[in-house]
Every structure is written in structure tokens, then in C-alpha cells.
Write a structure and sequence with these properties.
The chain has 96 residues and is of the alpha+beta class. The chain has 2 helices and 9 strands.
């Protein structure tokens, strides 16, 4: 995994740290509190196709994970990567 900088998305006011892997990109959002992360997570719907009022067209299948004050978006379909993310963050709360 390689750090690939940061990204700003239209759906949350936080910057995400981006990590590139051969299996796809991982965006890591750190919120001020677990309650803030939970509020943001509730905005995600439609298998990750919508976040709040934003309609998303992802480069690869999105997978959303949350633990405490962190939300992770994995864009890819690697079973190994999904398994590793589930081991750290638990089951995805939304995605395809």
C-alpha cells in the first residue's frame, strides 16, 4: 500500500487520506468523533451510489466501512483486501 496524498469529495467536508494498492484505492476519513462518523455514514445509500444529495459514479465498486470516528471507502473488488478491511473495521455498512 502506498500513500497517494489527499482527496476532497463533494459529499463530506473532510479531506481523506488516499492509499493506492494494486487492488484499488482506499480513502480514509477521520471525523472529530464517533457520533460525527455515524452521522456521515447514515448519508450513504443505494449501495454507495448516493451520499447525501450527491449521486456517485465510482471508478470501481465502492465498499464503506466504519469504526469509531473513521470511515473507509475501498474502491475495488479484491476478496483479500475486503477480508483485511473487515478484520480491522468490521463488516461493510454499505457497498456493492
Amino acid at each position: 500500500m502506498t500513500a497517494a496524498g489527499t482527496i476532497e469529495q463533494p459529499f463530506w467536508t473532510r479531506q481523506a487520506r488516499v492509499f493506492s494498492t494494486p487492488a484499488g484505492d482506499i480513502q480514509v476519513y477521520e471525523f472529530p468523533s464517533a457520533a460525527d462518523a455515524q452521522t456521515a455514514a447514515k448519508q450513504v445509500g443505494g449501495g454507495g451510489g448516493t451520499i447525501g444529495t450527491s449521486s456517485m459514479a465510482w471508478m470501481a465498486p465502492p465498499h464503506f466501512f466504519r469504526s469509531g470516528n473513521v470511515i473507509v471507502i475501498y474502491l475495488g473488488s479484491s476478496a483479500e483486501t475486503l477480508q483485511k478491511l473487515e478484520a480491522v473495521f468490521g463488516k461493510q455498512f454499505e457497498g456493492r
